[in-house]
Write a structure and sequence with these properties.
Length: 382
C-alpha cells in the first residue's frame, strides 16, 4: 500500500503498519513548497503513550487566565499534557521503519482502480514515478469542504529565551484571555515553558481570517511586553499556522481503494483545532481494519454529537452571540479541568457533557442551538 505524506497522519499510520505483513511505500514531498513546515504538536492522554520517547516536554498542571487576569492552575491528572516537535517525531518514527520504502517525491495524482489504485509522483530529480497499490492513504492537505460556519484557529508563536527566569516550567498556560478581544471569536495567549528562561509563547485567534505578518508580530510584542512583562528576550524560532475550525462534514473515501487521512479527513476537532489525538484514533482504526482483513475506510475520529456541539459553539462565537473570552473563562472556572480536557478529546459521557453545557451561557447557546437546528432542517428539505 501507499501512504502519501509523512506528517502527523502519514507517519502515525506507517508506524502502525510496520508490524503487519504488508508492503508499504511512504511518499513525502521533498523540501519545497509542498512540504509542510515544522511544527509543534500538543495533546493529552492518560498514562504512558506511544510517542513518549520523542516528547520535548510534558506537564501535569495547566493554567487558564480570564480577561481580568484572575487565574486558575489545576492538575490535569489522570491526564498529561504532552509536547512533541514534528522533527523529533519524524526522526523517531523513521528510525523504526526498517521494511518500509521511504521515498521523497511530490505526488501529483491518485487514481482509484478496480484491482489497483495508482499514485503518480515526481521524484527529487523531477522524473515521473508511478506506484500501483491495493490501498492508498493520502494525507495531502485539501481545502476544507463548504461549511455554514468557517472560522480559523490562526496563530504565530515565538520560541523565546529570556534574560531573567520568567517562566514556571511546572505548568503550561492553555489560555490566557487577557489580550484585547476581536469583535467576534476569541484571542488568547498560549505558553509552553521549556525551562525558567525558555518557552513557546503564542498569540492565537479563533476568527474568520488570518492576520498579516505585522499584525501577528504586533500582537506578540504587546502580549510579551505589556501582558506578560517578560524580561529582555531573543526569539530563537517562529511557528505559525491556520487550522480550519468548521462545521463541514468530511468524507474519507475518495474511491474504493483510495482514502484521505489526517486533517484532510476530518481529524481536526472543530471546536479546538487539535487534531493529533484524532489522528491517533483514526490511524489506529485503519491499522485494525487492515489487520482484520477488512476495507480500511478511515473513520472521522469524532462522535456526531460532539460535532453538533462544536458546530453550535463555532456559530455562537462567529455571530458574537457568545463572547469568546467569557465563554472559555466560565467553562474552565466552573468545571474540573480533566473533565473539560476529556470532553475536548471526545471521551466524556453524555451526562458529563450536559453538566458542562449547563455551565455555559444558557440563553445565547440555546438560541444558537435553535438556529443551528432550523438551518439543518432547511438544508434537509432543500
Ligand atoms: C503550526 C501548527 C501547529 C499545530 N499544533 C497542533 C497541536 O498542538 N495539537 C494538535 O492536536 N494539532 C495541532 N495542529 C493541527 C494538526 O495536528 C496538524 O496540522 C497536523 O500536522 C495534521 O497532520 P496531517 O498528517 O493531516 O498533515 P501534515 O502533518 O501537514 O502532513 C501532510 C504531509 O503531506 C506532505 N505533502 C503535502 N503535499 C504533498 C505532495 N504533493 N506529495 C507528497 N507529500 C505531500 C507534507 O509534506 C506533509 O508531510 C497544528 C497545525 C499547525 C499548522
Amino acid at each position: 500500500m501507499v501512504v502519501v505524506g509523512g506528517g502527523a497522519a502519514g507517519l502515525s499510520l506507517t508506524h502502525r503498519l510496520r508490524h503487519l505483513n504488508v508492503s508499504v511505500a511512504l511518499l513525502e514531498a521533498p523540501p519545497g513548497p509542498a512540504r509542510s513546515p515544522e511544527r509543534t504538536w500538543c495533546y493529552w492522554e492518560e498514562g504512558p503513550g506511544r510517542w513518549d520517547a520523542a516528547l520535548t516536554a510534558r506537564w501535569d498542571r495547566l493554567r487558564v487566565l480570564g480577561p481580568d487576569g484572575r487565574g486558575r492552575t489545576a492538575p490535569t491528572a489522570p491526564l498529561t499534557y504532552k509536547m512533541l516537535r514534528s522533527t523529533d517525531f519524524d526522526a523517531y518514527v523513521r528510525a523504526g521503519l526498517g521494511g518500509v520504502e521511504q521515498v521523497e517525491a511530490t505526488v501529483t495524482g491518485v487514481t482509484d482502480g478496480a484491482r489497483r489504485a495508482t499514485v503518480r509522483a515526481l521524484d527529487a530529480s523531477g522524473a515521473e514515478v508511478t506506484y500501483a497499490a491495493r490501498w492508498v492513504f493520502d494525507s495531502r492537505p485539501v481545502p476544507p469542504p463548504p461549511a455554514r460556519t468557517a472560522l480559523l484557529q490562526h496563530f504565530r508563536g515565538w520560541f523565546v529565551r529570556t534574560s531573567a527566569p520568567d517562566f514556571d516550567p511546572s505548568r503550561a498556560t492553555l489560555m490566557d484571555l487577557r489580550p484585547p478581544q476581536p469583535p467576534g471569536g476569541v484571542a488568547f495567549g498560549y505558553i509552553l515553558p521549556l525551562s525558567r528562561h525558555e518557552a513557546l509563547v503564542e498569540y492565537t485567534e479563533f476568527t474568520r481570517a488570518p492576520l498579516t505578518s505585522g499584525q501577528y508580530d504586533a500582537a506578540l510584542h504587546d502580549y510579551t511586553k505589556n501582558v506578560l512583562r517578560l524580561s529582555p528576550f531573543e526569539v530563537t524560532s517562529v511557528e505559525q499556522g491556520a487550522i480550519p475550525m468548521t462545521d463541514a462534514r468530511h468524507t474519507t473515501a475518495t474511491g474504493h481503494r483510495t482514502f484521505r487521512i489526517g486533517a484532510a479527513a476530518g481529524a481536526v476537532r472543530p471546536a479546538t483545532g487539535y487534531a493529533f489525538s484524532g489522528i491517533q484514533r483514526q490511524t489506529a482504526a485503519v491499522a485494525h481494519l487492515l489487520a482484520t482483513g477488512r476495507r480500511p475506510l478511515p473513520p472521522v475520529p469524532h462522535r456526531p454529537r460532539h460535532l453538533t456541539m462544536d458546530a453550535i459553539l463555532l456559530r455562537a462565537l462567529d455571530t458574537a452571540r457568545v463572547p469568546g473570552a467569557a465563554f472559555f473563562t466560565t467553562l474552565f472556572r466552573r468545571n474540573p479541568l480533566p473533565k473539560v480536557l476529556a470532553f475536548l478529546d471526545g471521551t466524556t459521557t453524555f451526562p458529563t457533557e450536559l453538566r458542562l453545557g449547563l455551565s455555559t451561557p444558557l440563553l445565547p447557546m440555546t438560541l444558537t442551538t435553535t438556529d443551528h437546528t432550523t438551518a439543518r432542517l432547511r438544508r434537509g428539505r432543500g
